[in-house]
Amino acid sequence: MTRVTVVGAGFVGMTCAQRLAEQEIAEEIVLIDVLEGRPQGLALDINQAAAIEGYQARVIGTNDPKDTYGSELFIMTAGMPRKPGMDRSDLVEVNGKIVNSVAHYIKEGSPDAKVIVVSNPLDTMVYLMAERLGFPKNRVVGMAGVLDSARMAYFISEARGGGVADARCMVLGGHGDSMVPMPQFSTQNGVSVTALLSEEDVAGINHRTQHGGAEIVNLLKTGSAFYAPSASAVAMAKAILRNEYRLMPAAAYLDGHYGLSGLYMGVPVVLGSQGVERIVELEIDETGAAKLQASAEAIHADILTLKEKGLL
Fold it and tell me: Would you name the residues annotated as active-site residues?
């Protein structure tokens, strides 16, 4: 029996559990949260919808880490979300403590699991999770580029007036304002975006992509995005559990790739049963390389904060 655990029953977590069940990606989905009653109530609600939607997957809501033992994959969504005016880096200390506590029971009860980290600041939290777990680095990956690329794809389709399903995009770097959209590796139905849109339009799309999460936070006033983040995490989970060997941008551990080492950052990866099967290195120009370096420096600064706070 395939078991997947979603950590955190907030909006992202509960929507991940719903998508996993509806798509029958796992036979059993465990939804765990520290708040008593919430994961149990959400699980009951999703299970009752099965009679209407016709899926056979079962969701278990729990507050007990032992119910997660034996999971093949974890989706880590727990943590405080951003509020208007906050940067993802503002969440380092509070969410770092949560990651440390979750890593403890993953390591204890599911030593062979793969882990997808969604909690912010993403690149820093996936680094912390990997360090605390001590698993092979390919089995721990961060959900960032899939979401950022989906946002870019929507903005391109909006500008072009074409179908969003025809757009395929690539966004590298950290999951924050320092992310690096790659329009030269982004297409609409196979045609490069740079050939379809003016430089001004491309620049505007790049900027909006970099601030896509903040745009939603500012509109909502309370809370942050969850539909697209959950869809992104579940797409990654499916690629791993079904050994799809899909090429996706994700936060992977870099060991000399793109001239960078000792951190997790968004790059194109192939996802399969082992997690990150391989990292794909694109030929990027000096400007792109400089932007990736700047993004890496921002991530290193957050890692330093972790060390200063005694979390690493």
Answer: 175
